[in-house]
Amino acid sequence: MTGRMHWALGSPAQAVTVWNAWGVAGQATSTDHSAYVFVLDRDGRRCVSWPATQLTPEGLSHDIKLLESRNGVCRA
Hints:
By secondary structure, the chain is an alpha+beta fold. Helix content is about 30%, strand content about 15%. It has helices spanning about 10-20, 55-70; strands at about 35-40, 45-50.
């Protein structure tokens, strides 16, 4: 992701906009964490996301193959 990954820094109020756009939540406690794996298309758009606890090799492989069959572009 070198040169393609961008970081968002700001106050919690500013971060809410980003969290909502990506379907994640801030930590409610020091042990709380929302870990998701995102499959992005060639333009950096989110195609699908998996809660890390539900991610399977088969599911991820399926989604990547589907994206490849669409020439790397998500379709609604």
